[in-house]
Protein: ASPIC/UnbV domain-containing protein
Organism: hydrothermal vent metagenome
Amino acid sequence: MIKIIIMALLTLTCTSALSDVVFNDIAAEKSAGINYGRVASSIDSLLIIYKQDLVTVMDMGDMPTRAHGAPGTALFDYDGDGDLDIYVSNGPKAANSLFTNQLSDSGKLRFIDKGEFSGTAATDQDSTGVCFGDIDNDGDQDLYVLGRSEPNRLFENQGDGRFKNISKTSQTNTHSRSSTACAMGDVNGNGLLDIVVANAFDYTNRHAMVKVAFDLNEHSVLLLNQGGNIFKDVSETSGLQTLAGLPDYGKGGATISWAVALLDYDLDGDADIIFGDEQGFFSPASMGGLDRGYIRIFNNNGKGQFKDVTIEAGTNKYGSWMGIAFGDLNCDGHIDIFGANVGDHILSNMTTFFQPGVLLSRWFLGSAAGTFTDPGIGKLVSTPFGYGAGIADYDNDGDPDIIFHGGLDTGLYKDSSNPGTILKNDNCSANFSLDEVALANSTNHARRNVQGMALGDVNNDGFIDIISVSNFDVPEFIKVEQYPAKTGSPFDKYAKFVPIFYPVDGSKKFADKTGEFEWTGYRFDNGSLSVETSSADNGNAWIKVKTLGTVGLLEKGKVNRDGIGAVIFFTPEKGKLRVQPVLGGASHASQDELEQNFGMARFNTATIEILWPGGTRNRLYDVKKSERLLFPEIPCGFNLSWSTQKDYEACVADSINKLVESGRLKKNVAERFRKSALRAFKESSDL
């Protein structure tokens, strides 16, 4: 009997320790210092005429889109004090916010908005997406802020808490397009971060979504870093404007791109470009129409020249790909892709040619050949609408999970199908289930029209937190209604919408093309910023890895200071290998923190290997749980060709000694890197 009681107590203890983590939105607490409200764009005034008269479904194409704005967010330590700060964009006549984290100064997680003080407020811009990186390799991160139908802005970090607007001198403000998202990476291997910008169309109407397939779309842009904080537009000569799979009348045209990332998806040592594109309301090619909305992959030849390999890669599945994220979902050592899409429920209010299941958010599993397969979404059956997306091990149990938020103003109604989605991975199988507990007591995201989302550890507890921004919120007094679709998915009960215009006949039939609609009179609140921190209480271990490129620090160093573009291979003792790229922007209009957080479950040590841009590989053994590791590029890869082992050892010793002399590495850590380098060389030679 005593044994039974003891076993029961042990079982309860273990169950408690392994319970799922939950999230709490600290932005709702006044003490957090988060005071943010996204104001509407100027085109919001164009909706007045429609609100004063009856409209039909056909009028939707003439309405402005994203009239409340398209904000993004980024997590970076701009002041170098060891904690993450939050940048979030805003609309015209409202300052963008730079919420400076006070954790390292006070020991408390609270923020002070230094947007105006820092010089990054951009009050006269209708700001959209953001990305960051150390463009001049001076040790601090610079900021690129996009605008709607106006020039983008580049802010150089001065290292003293302030930024300088160098948009004009850097030649990064030469276009006035509707830019949605950006990413940084080194496309030509010169150790300098370049910038790619995803563009869409003029938001004053929706013709590019419903009437004109290509002519109204705006080409995306590639800006090549020339050094000295000067960039050159190489969009036309780089191959970025040569798109595969378009009909003849679309050749030379552009697509609508909502998301973009620069990463080495095929693990060959160079930065490729991946876009999330929009199909819109054009019937697919299988029905006599056209396919344009792909997860579009441009493969780098190693010299900054790109070829669209979307069809060969297998990601040519049409959709409205709003956000993209990357990680190793099945733990096989290859990079996989998650794409946020519109889902089934939002379409059930419309008359549409899209079949159920076609426009679901889904993941594509990578292979050694650089191709991808779609395994389907399994028992989830269906998915809600998504914009911001991320792949991270939110519960630190040792496998990557999927997180995505999103809401959409369709014109006639606001989609509220996504209450905040966390898909839990089943033991690195890439089979997912919906975690309905993690966000249950946090903010009701169904009432937020979420756009941008970023992941990072804002309170330094070893568990990732979720930051998201909406362009408007629905007040509590407004009724949220149920979508008609019943898919058998766990998402069905959350699948709701808010009418903006309502059928005059009271039928609730939004799909009737001939029916008339009148404005409900609903007025929405300004958008909000959500900072959801993890409870971090399940006892699972973690390791953090921050990459350091050594161009300018070591004679043979080739990698940008942030190590953006590196790919980290993480293997816990007796655990499964995971691969994670260091990204200079992804999700939707947003950027996660650069330091990578790896969950370890109950393992104690791990081996970490990094594939650096250019192809060099370094490895470190016996990394301990709870360690925050600075991993520098040692430009003496164990995978490279060496005349003798002594040459390799001399290169390693010289590089590590210089990193110690410069204060980048402590002596005890340096010795670990030296021993690991020798061991890695021996093990690779024995293969």
Q: What stands out?
A: Confidence is low (pLDDT under 50) at residues 1-19. The two ends are 55 Å apart (CA to CA).
